[in-house]
Design brief:
The chain has a 4-stranded antiparallel beta sheet with strand order 1-2-4-3. By secondary structure, it is α+β, with helices and mostly antiparallel strands. It starts with a helix and ends with a helix. The protein is globular and about 35 Å long. It is built from 5 helices and 4 strands; from the N terminus they run H-E-E-H-E-E-H-H-H. Strand 3 and strand 4 form a beta hairpin. The protein has one domain: Endonuclease I-creI (Roll). It comes from Thermodesulfitimonas autotrophica.
């Protein structure tokens, strides 16, 4: 994964990322308006094993949801530099660290 790809993914996670899980396995999701479909298509190609769901229409909003979990999530997290998040956006870093603690990814 090149520096541009890492940086764009980190930016998306800072701006739109949700770090959570279903109680059994962790996941990271991004939910954005359907007009960002090309960005989501790129993201699925950039993060093998990630999935794109939608488009959904809820409350007049049309959106896609991208999700990564399981081995693809672990691989993605290994490639990203959490130190950059800690420096640039501590709240996002803390949300990521909480998910990692909650699901034993440390």
């Amino acid at each position: 994964m090149d520096a541009f790809t890492k940086g764009l993914i980190l930016g998306l996670l800072i701006g739109e990322g949700h770090f959570g899980g279903d109680g059994r396995q962790p996941h990271v999701t991004l939910r954005m308006h359907a007009r960002h479909e090309k960005l989501f298509t790129w993201l699925v190609a950039a993060v093998p094993g990630s999935r794109l769901y939608g488009p959904y229409n809820h409350g007049g909003r049309v959106y896609y949801q991208w999700m990564v979990r399981g081995a693809p999530l672990r691989e993605l997290l290994a490639r990203l530099d959490p130190g950059i998040l800690a420096t640039l956006d501590p709240p996002t870093y803390e949300r990521l660290q909480k998910m990692k603690r909650d699901y034993g990814l440390d």
